[in-house]
UniProtKB/TrEMBL annotation:
Pfam families: Peptidase_M23
Matching InterPro entries: Cell_wall_metabolism_enzyme, Dup_hybrid_motif, M23ase_b-sheet_dom
GO MF term set: metalloendopeptidase activity
Organism phylogeny: Bacteria, Pseudomonadati, Bacteroidota, Cytophagia, Cytophagales
Family annotation (Gene3D superfamilies): Glucose Permease (Domain IIA)
Protein name: Peptidase family M23
Domain M23ase beta-sheet core: 86-184
């Protein structure tokens, strides 16, 4: 399906562009990361927000299919079969408390607190229908209070305030950011879906998880 033909509401309430957004690099090729103790969230947080302050930007962005170095900080990404290090969503790094809006009409499919160091923390999944085809969108690293009073099946309108970028440690103990991801099929998942894949799994996940920038339309990610 061609998502370019649809109109989407800006999920941060404003367009993400070169004027307000900085593309961030979390690959092994970013040598500035090497001395950063990523296991200490406060240190990791200082690194991220220093980057934004130096460039006078409100948001940092990036990550779709990025082979990342930052997942060595948590055992969540190490399994007996393989190490997961390829990011399947887009991260929008910004101050905790920033509101997040639904990009398109849908309903609440599921939600839960995926607690644990390096996990999603509070997470919401919306279900949408576009020309008769289902699409799911995931919002991770939220405030715990964003899950209060939610109801599965509740209708959500495009532009409706859905949640907020959460603070650490309740957001899975990450520097504040929104993990935004798209999925065509959730399988048996509920309130959760892998946000990082191992290289040997990438072909499947790349087919099932389209580029979130088809909705975000951030010019920084087109360069």
């Amino acid at each position: 399906m061609n998502l370019n033909k649809f109109d989407f509401y800006a999920i941060m309430g404003e367009s993400l562009s070169f004027e307000n957004t900085l593309k961030l690099d979390f690959t092994e090729g970013n040598h500035e990361l090497k001395p950063v103790d990523l296991s200490k969230t406060e240190v990791f947080n200082q690194y991220v927000f220093n980057q934004l302050r130096q460039k006078n930007k409100k948001y940092g962005i990036g990550g779709y299919l990025e082979k990342r170095a930052i997942y060595r900080r948590s055992e969540v990404f190490a399994t007996a079969a393989a190490f997961r290090n390829i990011h399947l969503g887009v991260d929008i790094w910004t101050e905790a408390g920033a509101p997040v809006f639904a990009p398109i009409d849908g309903m609440i499919h599921s939600f839960q607190d995926n607690a644990g160091f390096g996990n999603y923390g509070p997470t919401i999944i919306l279900e949408h229908e576009l020309d008769g085809k289902k699409l799911f969108s995931l919002y991770g690293h939220l405030f715990q209070k964003d899950l209060e009073k939610l109801e599965v099946g509740r209708k959500i309108k495009a532009g409706e305030k859905l949640c907020h970028v959460g603070p650490f440690p309740e957001n899975g103990d990450w520097p504040p950011h929104l993990h935004f991801q798209l999925m065509w099929d959730l399988g048996e998942n509920w309130g959760d879906y892998p946000g990082v894949a191992a290289e040997k799994e990438l072909e499947f996940y790349q087919r099932n998880c389209p580029d979130p920038n088809l909705i975000l339309r951030c010019s920084c990610l087109d360069s």
